[in-house]
């Protein structure tokens, strides 16, 4: 079966390359979100949230970070924990793979109470293997904890590229299958204490949830994604150690 799949991919290669070139040429290039990459919501004992990753953390598709994934996630946490001051920090690079994030963004991570890692689209587009993606994510988890402390790390599910309206078939199907494979590899890291994986289910990103480029989420898409992430987001308690996490009641 694996040999057959490789043979079919070989036959489709010219079509896939042509479609990829056309999508790259015709997709509008949207900027990252404007404004500060950190802020605070609410009052009380600090809850430090760091979100690190690719263009969705850079806020592409939203005007400001308040409308993008990190800001929406921070707002959800502030509502769930009204006695905490949610201090958020967004570290994102458009076009970054896991390896780029490890090399260029992880060194900028500061002390935190929970870290969310949002990656996978660019590793999918670059056709990285599941083994490489898992290895790079593991390195990110290890290095993040060296800098932020021994805190919970949440791996956001790899967005299902089969749901992206800007991608034509069969390119959409091939990249969709690859994104599923990378997401499965990320989920394997939940064997580590204190590492959580929150999948992004295909039905979450409907056509109306996308920005003008039909590739990145718009504010509504970010809001829905942040709500899904919030439901699985572990929050540290006093005296927390790896493996002990709580969630909003």
From TrEMBL:
Domain of life: Bacteria
Domain SGNH hydrolase-type esterase, residue spans: 51-224
Example GO molecular function: hydrolase activity
rRNA-binding recorded as keyword: no
Keyword Chloroplast assigned: no
UniProt keyword annotations, A-Z: Hydrolase
Gene3D superfamilies: SGNH hydrolase
Any Pfam family matching the protein: Lipase_GDSL_2
Name of this chain's protein: SGNH/GDSL hydrolase family protein
Protein species of origin: Amycolatopsis albidoflavus
């Amino acid at each position: 079966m694996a040999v057959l799949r490789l043979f079919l991919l070989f036959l489709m290669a010219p079509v896939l390359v042509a479609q990829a070139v056309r999508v790259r040429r015709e997709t509008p290039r949207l900027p990252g979100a404007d404004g500060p990459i950190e802020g605070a919501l609410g009052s009380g004992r600090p809850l430090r949230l760091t979100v690190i990753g690719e263009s969705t953390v850079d806020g592409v598709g939203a005007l400001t970070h308040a409308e993008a994934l990190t800001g929406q996630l921070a707002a959800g946490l502030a509502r769930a924990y009204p006695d905490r001051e949610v201090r958020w920090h967004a570290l994102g690079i458009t076009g970054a793979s896991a390896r780029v994030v490890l090399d260029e963004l992880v060194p900028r991570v500061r002390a935190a109470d929970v870290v969310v890692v949002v990656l996978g689209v660019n590793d999918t587009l670059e056709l990285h293997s599941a083994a490489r993606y898992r290895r790079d994510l593991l390195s990110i988890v290890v290095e993040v904890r060296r800098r932020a402390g021994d805190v919970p790390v949440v791996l956001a599910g790899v967005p299902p590229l089969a749901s992206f309206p800007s991608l034509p078939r069969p390119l959409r199907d091939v990249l969709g299958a690859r994104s599923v494979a990378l997401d499965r590899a990320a989920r394997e890291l939940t064997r580590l204490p204190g590492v959580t994986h929150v999948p992004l289910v295909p039905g979450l990103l409907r056509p109306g949830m996308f920005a003008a480029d039909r590739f990145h989420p718009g504010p509504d898409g970010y809001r829905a994604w942040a709500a899904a992430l919030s439901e699985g987001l572990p929050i540290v308690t006093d005296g927390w150690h790896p493996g002990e996490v709580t969630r909003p009641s």
